[in-house]
Design a protein that fits this description.
Radius of gyration of chain A: 24 Å
Order of helices and strands of chain A: HHEHHEEHHHH
Strand order of the largest sheet of chain A: 1-3-2
Number of helices of chain A: 8
Largest interface: A-B, 74 and 74 residues
Helix content of chain A: 55-70%
Oligomer: homodimer
Largest sheet of chain A: 3 strands, antiparallel
Distance between the termini of chain A: 49 Å
Strand content of chain A: 5-15%
Structural class of chain A: mainly alpha
DNA sequence: CTAAACTTTCAAAAATTACTGAAAATTCAA
DNA sequence: TTGAATTTTCAGTAATTTTTGAAAGTTTAG
């Protein structure tokens, strides 16, 4: 299967970017191809289109499966497996974020958690442990937030994103309301929220 | 300089994770060491502590500089350069996010933008182009939001994060208010925002 | 300017990772 | 069961990346 220049360009780009994304060229190209394809493709078609060996494609697809980034399907009267990328780009984004967290963040969090339990042997050690704790808390806060955002349904999430930094206006309103009506009072002194111009 | 077991563990972890983060072992370990160190270190100290060759450390530091992740300083009466990681973990997080966007996302965005200008040659091509556009718009929305969030000052950002998915409550309030008071009317039909339980 | 102190560059070696073709394993229709 | 179709594994090779030591380059005190 000959690739059109349009698709070719996309596929090659993903192959090259692969290294920066922590995946290899084969995997990047396979995914790009599946993403743009109008119908599911089987491993032979992929191998032929991209000029990789059949076994290389097999390994690449395994990798993509482990990332939950491909769907498997079958065609009537054909024993081969057909692969496709999920249609919903939001779903893809979520999967990607989730898997990255699982592989790239969670192991670090456990390490940091365990390291907190050890007893520092000198002042330098104590300092190091404090730094690790700061890192731990930041990661926890950010990933927790990410997690929360991922739980929102798409429509809400999109609304929130389009709101962008104007969300601070809502925060101000909220602070005022909860102050006046007697809801949960905010902790600490409250400065007016401001956006910092970069 | 002998590393304590505590710091050793942290340093080795960062070295190993390096591959998943798209940096190499040397760079990961150097950064981990600087992050935990109670004072700036010079290149020789780093090389000795980690058991890398001096030149390897030099290259690693260059890489970290290109990521804006280290600060340079000098000690009185010493010509050597001393390196340290910024104290503020939030600043580190921002730098990291910014650099990653620049290297990992921006090139893809330009490619997608350019590819939109080409004329698809057949229905498959047309489909591919549509998919690329979906991807483009999603990335644009998400990175734009990220950008906005990065502009907030830390206190506000932290408040927002701790609010988590409860932020939807504010969205509801806002919708009600703007409807009643006659603020900027929301575009399209408005369904009550709901969080989807995963 | 010179020499000592320090840093960077670079070619080559070492280590790691990607890729292939052939063979083994699996699956399923008959 | 058998055997044809298909997928996976794996040992060897190729390509890439990392690391090093030596040499070259830079900076600055005197």
């Amino acid at each position: 299967m000959q690739l059109s220049p349009l698709i070719q360009r996309f596929v090659l780009h993903f192959g090259e970017m692969g290294s920066r994304w922590g995946i290899n060229r084969t995997v990047g190209q396979i995914y790009a191809l599946l993403f743009t394809a109008a119908r599911p493709l089987n491993a032979d078609e992929i191998a032929e289109s991209l000029g990789f060996s059949r076994s290389n494609v097999s390994i690449g697809l395994k990798e993509l499966e482990s990332w939950n980034l491909v769907r498997l399907s079958h065609q009537p009267g054909d024993r081969r497996e057909y692969f496709s990328a999920p249609d919903d780009v939001w779903a893809i984004f979520r999967t990607l974020a989730e898997e990255r967290r699982r592989r790239e963040i969670d192991p670090t969090l456990s390490m940091l958690r365990e390291v907190q339990l050890e007893t520092p042997s000198d002042p330098d050690d104590k300092h190091a442990q404090r730094r690790m704790q700061e890192m731990y808390e930041l990661i926890l806060l950010v990933t927790g937030w990410f997690n929360d955002m991922q739980k929102l349904d798409i429509a809400t999430l999109e609304k929130l994103m389009r709101l962008g930094s104007r969300v601070t206006k809502l925060l101000e309103v909220k602070d005022k309301l909860s102050g006046a009506v007697g809801g949960k009072p905010a902790e600490g002194k409250r400065k007016p929220a401001r956006t910092k111009k970069e």
